[in-house]
TrEMBL record:
A Pfam family annotated for this UniProt entry: rve_2
Residue span, Integrase catalytic domain: 14-69
Gene3D superfamilies membership: Ribonuclease H-like superfamily/Ribonuclease H (3.30.420.10)
PANTHER family, alphabetized: TRANSPOSASE INSF FOR INSERTION SEQUENCE IS3B-RELATED, TRANSPOSASE INSO FOR INSERTION SEQUENCE ELEMENT IS911B-RELATED
Source organism (scientific name): Chryseobacterium muglaense
Source organism, top-level taxon: Bacteria
One GO process term, biological-process aspect: DNA integration
GO MF term list: nucleic acid binding
Protein name: IS3 family transposase
Length: 76
């Protein structure tokens, strides 16, 4: 594979899918495909993006990180 930071480094994606599986899917009872799609959508859009803090973003939520970058873009 390649070194850290190159386009072949998929550690962030692997971390996301590990979190998704352990926090949502494992231990969840068997439900319909449509219900699982809704659960995954809610997990990503409501919990993962807006409330869950990420170590790679210095323990900020994705929303906080994006807002911080918008502030810096307006200053420049």
């Amino acid at each position: 594979m390649s070194r850290k930071g190159n386009c072949w480094d998929n550690a962030v994606a692997e971390s996301f899918f590990k979190s998704l599986k352990t926090e949502l899917i494992y231990g969840n009872k068997l439900i319909t495909k449509e219900k699982m799609e809704l659960e995954i959508f809610e997990y990503i859009e409501i919990w993962y993006n807006k409330k869950r803090r990420h170590g790679t973003l210095h323990y900020k939520t994705i929303e906080e990180f994006n807002n911080q970058n918008k502030i810096y873009q307006n200053i420049a």
